[in-house]
């Protein structure tokens, strides 16, 4: 099953983490590969998800991005970001057979920034076995992802504190 969480609202990564919690609770092994987020710590870096009932299932995060592209003081050449995205996609292909579910966090953004092509990403899920779950997150999901997906949710921003020059509350957002 291919799931896409997209849109300009908050909650795409959070929704994918909710899916991870459910999967681990059912004894599944879940991997999140982060395509953009880099060395800066974020809240999800500090979590552990485990099945309390039987100890089966696992959750792992693999940060493979180099940080936000072209913003927040990023001075890296775009090609370095593209190379990191290609490595992340290769890692996904290597891990797919070993995991029950894999989250490709911000892969939509990697495509919209031109770090990867939609065609190359879709090729990796072309023959996705029905028991596997793959989740694509990030703004600007290409139409081809939406067409291929079994489930698509668009997060819509209605109101955000950033618009009033209030920055994210690290405990909540």
TrEMBL record:
Any one Gene Ontology molecular-function term assigned to this protein's record: corrinoid adenosyltransferase activity
One example of a Gene Ontology biological process annotation: cobalamin biosynthetic process
Keywords attached to this entry: Transferase
Keyword Cytoplasm among record annotations: no
Alphabetized Gene3D superfamilies for the sequence: P-loop containing nucleotide triphosphate hydrolases
Coiled-coil spans in chain: none
InterPro entries linked to this entry: CblAdoTrfase_CobA, P-loop_NTPase
A Pfam family the protein falls into: CobA_CobO_BtuR
Entry-linked PANTHER family: CORRINOID ADENOSYLTRANSFERASE (PTHR46638:SF1)
Official protein name in the record: Cob(I)yrinic acid a,c-diamide adenosyltransferase
Organism (species): Candidatus Colwellbacteria bacterium CG23_combo_of_CG06-09_8_20_14_all_42_19
């Amino acid at each position: 099953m291919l799931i896409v969480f997209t849109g300009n609202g908050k909650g795409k990564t959070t929704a994918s983490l909710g899916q991870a919690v459910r999967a681990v609770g059912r004894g599944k092994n879940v991997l999140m590969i982060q395509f953009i987020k880099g060395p800066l710590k974020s809240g999800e870096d500090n979590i552990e998800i485990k099945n309390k009932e039987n100890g089966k299932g696992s959750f792992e995060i693999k940060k493979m991005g180099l940080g936000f592209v072209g913003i927040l003081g990023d001075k890296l050449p775009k090609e370095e970001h593209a190379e990191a995205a290609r490595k992340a996609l290769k890692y996904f292909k290597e891990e797919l057979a070993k995991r029950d579910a894999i989250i490709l966090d911000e892969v939509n953004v990697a495509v919209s920034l031109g770090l990867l092509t939609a065609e190359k990403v879709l090729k990796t899920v072309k023959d996705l076995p029905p028991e596997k779950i793959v989740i694509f997150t990030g703004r600007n999901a290409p139409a081809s992802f939406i067409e291929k997906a079994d489930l698509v949710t668009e997060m819509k921003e209605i109101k955000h504190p950033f618009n009033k020059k209030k920055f994210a509350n690290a405990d909540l957002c």
